[in-house]
Amino acid sequence: RQNKLIDMEKGLPDNFIAAISRDFTKRQVNRLRSLTLDSLNPNPFLIQSLNLSTPEEVVRLNVYAAATRSIVTSFGLIVQNMLYSTSESVQKVKSGWDLLKSSGDGKNHWIQVKSGPNDMDKDQVIYWKDLIEEAERRGDKGYIGMTYGKRDNKTVTLGLLDKYLPNWEIRTLIGRELW
After folding, report:
1. CA separation (Å) from 127 to 87, 96, 132, 145?
2. Is the model more confident about 49 or about 16?
3. What percentage of the chain exceeds 90 in pLDDT?
4. Strand ranges in 2-135 using DSSP code E only, listed in sequence order
5. What are phi and psi of 142, to 5 degrees?
6. Residue 52, Cβ density class (10 Å: 0-12 exposed, 13-18 middle, ≥19 buried)
7. How many Å from the N-terminal Cα to the C-terminal Cα in the chain?
8. In sequence order, which residues have a C-beta less than 8 Å from that of residue 56 and are 6 or more positions away?
9. Residue 36: CB atoms within 10 Å
10. What is the spatial distance between Cα 73 and Cα 53, in angstroms, rounded to a whole number?
11. Which of 87, 118, 168, 172 registers the highest number of CB atoms within 10 A of its CB?
12. DSSP-assigned letters across all residues of 97-154
């Protein structure tokens, strides 16, 4: 049996994920509807570089850019909520890390969640390297968790992790390892 919001055939975690997904989609649509010409901030160098010649082209680019930035940023919160809601040993934290997983051996596993292997720059990698090392000095573990991807993908982020995060393979949780 199913009503509009709750599927009685599914468990609490699946219904929770469906609910936060609906909320996410609704917020994104409302944000797009609220965009105005005054709220766009066109980059004149990008406009020239892309050879955009009409106001419509400029508006399309800027609406698309605003939408994708918002979706990527907001989706990170959705992923955190999904991870939190599907594990009894995960807590939300306010320390800069996204999640804390407690293990049976008494160690804390601090996790910074990234949507995937394409969204970190050098400064972010170095910042999280320092926090991971700080967690390890306390006897805990620190990880950068990515919701999808594979270690052998040739992405800029994975290249930066390889270069700036020693032993990056054991300090990251990628795809199924995170879930």
Report:
1. 27, 11, 9, 15
2. 49
3. 42
4. 90-92, 99-102, 108-114
5. -130, 140
6. middle
7. 29
8. none
9. 6
10. 30
11. 172
12. SSEEEE-TTS-EEEEEEESSTTS--HHHHHHHHHHHHHHHHTT-EEEEEESS--TT--
Q: pLDDT at position 3, please?
A: 58
48 pLDDT above the threshold of 70: yes
The neighbour count for residue 174, using CB atoms within 10 Å, is 22
Positive/negative CA dihedral, 140, 131, 129, 124 = positive
d(CA 40, CA 66): 8
Which amino acid is it at 112?
A: Q
Sheet holding 108-114, edge to edge: 90-92, 99-102, 108-114, 141-146, 172-174
What confidence tens digit (pLDDT) does each residue in 23-44 have? 888 888 888 888 888 888 888 9
